[in-house]
Amino acid sequence: MRMAGDGGYEAVQMRAVAEQSGVALGTIYRYYSGKDELLIAGLAGWLRRTRRRVESAVLQGDSPGERLIWLLRRSAERTQQRPTLMGALITALGPDSGHDAEGIARVIGHVWSSALTRWVSGMAPDGSVEIELVHAAEMLAGVPSRI
Fold first, then answer.
1. Does residue 4 sit within a domain?
2. What pLDDT shows up at residue 98?
3. How many Cα atoms occupy the beta-carbon half-sphere of 12 within 13 Å?
4. How far apart are CA 106 and CA 72, in angstroms?
5. Distance (Å, whole) CA 117 – CA 129
6. What's the domain range around 81?
7. CA angle 48–77–9, rounded 5-degree value
8. Mean pLDDT for each consecutive 10-residue tract of the chain (147 residues)?
9. Is 0.85 topped by the overall pTM?
10. Overall number of domains in the chain
11. pLDDT at position 102, please?
12. Under the phi-then-psi rule, with left for phi > 0, alpha for psi from -120 to 50, and beta for the rest, what region is 87?
């Protein structure tokens, strides 16, 4: 993710990933077929870490609605602060990878909206938003589910 954040999609080279992580190139290829799959797995991990940060944060606002808006704004700001990384992730899901990035983004948006609505209304437990987002991303990207 650091490589993608610093230099974009093209900066992610499997050999460099192996060198920087101290893992044999063959080991990386045992788990990931290429950089697209590696980036999507990185996205799933990023979502899990983000969830932990959100759960430990003190949400600002006097009402549940105000706290939700604060959380969504903060999430959007953090995403927009990393345009190179986000571009790399979208490229990993792009047409050359056999994925429809715009369609995937739309589906993820719908899943996110639905999961948030269910969680906020008490119809789904804490942690369900992350589970739904990661599961949808894994299904859409063809990554074997880790959930």
1. no
2. 58
3. 22
4. 17
5. 9
6. 36-141
7. 65
8. 90 93 93 88 80 80 80 78 82 65 73 84 84 78 61
9. no
10. 1
11. 66
12. alpha
> Using CA atoms, how far apart are residues 99 and 110, in angstroms rounded to an integer?
17
pLDDT at position 23: 94
Query: What's the token pair of residue 12?
Result: 């992610």
- Whether residue 24 is contained in a domain is answered as no
* Maximum Cα interatomic distance, the chain, rounded to a whole number of Å: 52
Amino acid (one-letter) located at 62: D
Closest CA relative to residue 82, chosen from 43, 54, 24, 55: 43
Amino acid at residue number 103: G
Integer Cα distance of 23 and 135 in angstroms: 27
Measured at the CA of 39, the angle between CA 88 and CA 13, to 5 degrees, comes to 80
Number of residues assigned to the chain: 147
In a domain, 23, yes or no: no
Residue with token string 């369900």: 128
Amino acid at 57: A
DSSP state at residue 39: H
